[in-house]
């Protein structure tokens, strides 16, 4: 008798969830992902060119979930990465900088662009999550977008979950991405054999 504890009956399927992160250049998309996956923050700003992704495994209830988090360039010239990039997404994370009004005002464009490119089966129920990043800046005194205003925007888009985050100080990062994973799971992540 062998000591292999994984009998065929205990095999659990992994679920791969594709998450797209969108928002203006400089709002902290890459920093949020690096803080979530690697627990690291860099003070150096390096613009993302095109797209890149990181993965993190987590367990939700009895499911092993692999989050494949796609980082996108926020610059206009990369905004239309094409349908292939967005296709198959299980959740979209919209990010703005709470200190930069323009990054908040462009959220509707990012939201629309995603729906246009990804063309989800049920656009009304597709999971979006909003992150207001950089709440640590200036002790919160330079905030240009109030939490109330952000929540009103979320309500207009169908009661989207909202988190105020700081990639630098690791505020609400795990909570936000757990919400992302749960929303993506509910929308039907693809089982990965």
UniProtKB/TrEMBL annotation:
Keywords: GTP-binding, Lipoprotein, Membrane, Methylation, Nucleotide-binding, Prenylation, Protein transport, Transport. Belongs to the small GTPase superfamily. Rab family. Coiled coil: none annotated. It is a lipid-anchor. The keyword GTP-binding applies. InterPro entries: P-loop_NTPase, Small_GTP-bd, Small_GTPase. PROSITE patterns: RAB, RAS, RHO. NCBIfam families: small_GTP. GO terms for molecular function: GTP binding; GTPase activity. It is found in: Endomembrane system. GO terms for cellular component: endomembrane system; vacuolar membrane. SMART domains: RAB (SM00175), RAN (SM00176), RAS (SM00173), RHO (SM00174). One of its GO terms (biological process) is protein transport. This is Ras-related protein Rab7.
């Amino acid at each position: 008798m062998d000591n292999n504890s994984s009998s065929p009956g205990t095999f659990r399927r992994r679920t791969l969830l594709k998450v797209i992160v969108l928002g203006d250049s400089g709002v902290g998309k890459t920093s949020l992902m690096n803080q979530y996956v690697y627990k690291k923050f860099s003070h150096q700003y390096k613009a993302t060119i095109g797209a890149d992704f990181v993965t993190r495994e987590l367990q939700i209830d009895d499911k092993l979930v692999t989050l494949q988090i796609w980082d996108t360039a926020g610059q206009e010239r990369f905004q239309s990465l094409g349908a292939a990039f967005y296709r198959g997404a299980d959740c979209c994370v919209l990010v703005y900088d709470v200190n930069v009004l323009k990054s908040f005002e462009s959220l509707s464009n990012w939201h629309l662009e995603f729906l246009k490119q990804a063309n989800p089966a049920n656009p009304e129920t597709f999971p979006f999550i909003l992150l207001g990043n950089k709440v640590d800046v200036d002790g919160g005194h330079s905030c240009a977008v109030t939490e109330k205003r952000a929540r009103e925007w979320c309500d207009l888009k169908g009661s989207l979950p909202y988190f105020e985050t700081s990639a630098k100080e690791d505020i609400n990062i795990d909570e936000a991405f757990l919400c992302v994973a749960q929303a993506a799971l509910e929308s039907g992540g693809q089982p990965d054999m």
